[in-house]
Amino acid sequence: MIHFNRSIPYNTLPSLPPKVDLETKAILLKVISASRGLAKLNGAIRKLPNPTLFIDTIHLQEAKASSAIENILTTHDDLYQALVSETAFENPETKEVLRYKEALWLGVERMKSRPFLTTNLCIELVQAIKGNTAGIRHGEGTTLSNPFGEVIYTPPSGEEDIREKLAAWEKFVNEESSLDPLIKMALMHYQFEAIHPFADGNGRTGRILLFLFLKQTGLLELPAIYLSEYIIQNKNDYYRHLRAVTEKSDWEGFILYILDMVEQTANHGLNRMDQVMDLLKETNEQVRMRLPKVFSKELVELIFRLPYTKRQSLTDAGLGTLKTAGSYLSALEKAGFLTAKKVGKEKLYLNTELMRILENNALE
Ligand SMILES: Nc1ncnc2c1ncn2[C@@H]1O[C@H](COP(=O)(O)OP(=O)(O)O)[C@@H](O)[C@H]1O
Ligand SMILES: [Mg+2]
Hints:
Layout: H1 25-47, H2 55-69, H3 76-84, H4 92-113, H5 119-130, E1 144-145, E2 151-153, H6 159-174, H7 181-195, H8 202-216, H9 228-233, H10 235-248, H11 251-290, H12 297-305, E3 308-309, H13 311-316, H14 322-334, E4 339-343, E5 346-350, H15 352-359
Antiparallel strand pairs: 1-2, 3-5, 4-5
Helix pairs in contact: 1-11, 2-4, 4-5, 4-8, 5-8, 6-7, 7-8, 7-11, 10-11, 11-12, 11-15
């Protein structure tokens, strides 16, 4: 039995896989329902006419929630506007959230050429999130505390030890194994957080790794899932389960938590995607009927790419000059499909109905 002391660097953190039963009946049952949800979502994404249509939006939601878990708060409206607007967004929190989204894309790109989760990739991700050149921790002194200032966990110390632990982690993650990939995903997430290789950004890097793992294993071809939606709504359980693994080797509780996250966010994502597709179809028909001179499939798709749009985006998409684009947008506004909003010197147009679906975040 390895003794754990929450105030002493946990350099005795055991490597994966843990020596407990990882295939209990409860876990296996949950693996089935979570995999089923994920498979349905993956099938639906494949059938989308334009699969990259919502991905920006989903990633933005993910970026917002994953950052909010760490108390970096920003509103949806700020974010969506920041994405399309040229007006400088000085709010550092909004910037940090946007960087998380960039990091997620960076990870997806890297996986295309080299489909492995590595220490170097983790470093690239954390640097993208933090917008600096941070590396593996070398000094001592990193502790995790609760809101009362009590130390609840002290991760391993010493760069060399941390690198060794990451190397073992990397080997486990990329190696073939008979474990179900979703169980493996839970293990790798705990282990990464327990190693806590960086001074900051470990939670967010660890959550981006979840998407990359889903892609690596082929469970989800496009990372069009909003996993942090679950964590943000069940945040205390997230922390409690992480601790219970360290303190009591309660892997079952943690694995069930991760599986429930996958199942619920897959089902909810599918549901939301259905609603957006219905709205897209309906909008196509309505615009075609009521504004035949303005209508094109490309134009309607464009106002669904992100909740906010502007003249320049239409012109960039080859839909006409700025003047034409402006007349299209005001026609859509007059007919009630969009709402205009002035941001700085720019006029942005909001797809209100789309935003309403996106903002409805309640998990079943
Ligand atoms: N008891 C714990 N043991 C290991 N990891 C934990 C524990 N409690 C929280 N964490 C992880 O640490 C993360 C916070 O670490 P931090 O480096 O500040 O990341 P970020 O800056 O992205 O928030 C949490 O999101 C969680 O993933
Ligand atoms: Mg932090």
